[in-house]
Amino acid sequence: MTSDAAMLSVALEEARKGFAEGGVPVGAALFGPDGRLLGRGRNRRVQDGDPSVHGETAAFRDAGRQPSYRGTTMVTTLSPCWYCSGLIRQFRIPRLVVGECRTFTGAHEWLAEAGVEVVVLDDPECAGLMTAFIAANPAVWNEDIGDEA
After folding, report:
1. How far apart are CA 56 and CA 44, in angstroms?
2. Of 18, 94, 127, 139, which shows the fewest CB atoms inside 10 Å?
3. Where does the CMP/dCMP-type deaminase domain lie (predicted)?
4. At what angle do helices 4-20 and 55-63 cross, to 10 degrees?
5. DSSP 46-68
6. What's the rounded Cα separation, in Å, for the pair 18 and 8?
7. Candidate list 13, 21, 56, 143, residue with the active-site label
8. What's the pTM?
9. DSSP label at 102?
């Protein structure tokens, strides 16, 4: 599985699960240099009552310890927040695929400025899930991104 669209489909499956569970519909997956899935996850802040479980952190945790993140790709349905972007920089994940950044700008540009290869796919399903969630749950969304309503 090496195409960006194929990798996004794994993250999107996680986002759909999160949406069905009543959580913030952000999914992510971490892939190795050979395209092998290392880990996957979704934002579970609402479900677990844990503000640190974002899609990217869940995928990172699911991947477990790696000797190196050189050549890996983090795929996320939404532009990563500062918290998740910090994780990407800390572990020098060199490539990021973003499903969409219309509903939340995130910090993908900061990552690009730091030398991370960033690919934004502008996927309509990713944007649709977030648009529906934000419209139905504005207070939960604002809490998730650390914003005040």
Report:
1. 11
2. 139
3. 2-118
4. 110
5. HHHT-TT--HHHHHHHHH---S-
6. 15
7. 56
8. 0.95
9. S
Buried-state track 61-94, b at ≥16 Cβ within 10 A, e below 16: ebbeeeeebeebbbbbbbbbbeebbebbeebebb
Location of structure tokens 């920089």 = 89
Distance, CA of 33 to CA of 149 (rounded, Å): 41
Tokens 């005040």: give the residue.
Answer: 148
3.90.1030.10, 3.40.1440.10, 3.40.50.1980, 3.40.140.10: CATH of 16-144: 3.40.140.10
Give 56-90 pLDDT, tens digit per residue: 999 999 999 999 999 999 999 999 999 999 999 99
Give catalytic status of residue 56 as yes or no. yes
Residue given tokens 């477990």 in the structure block: 64
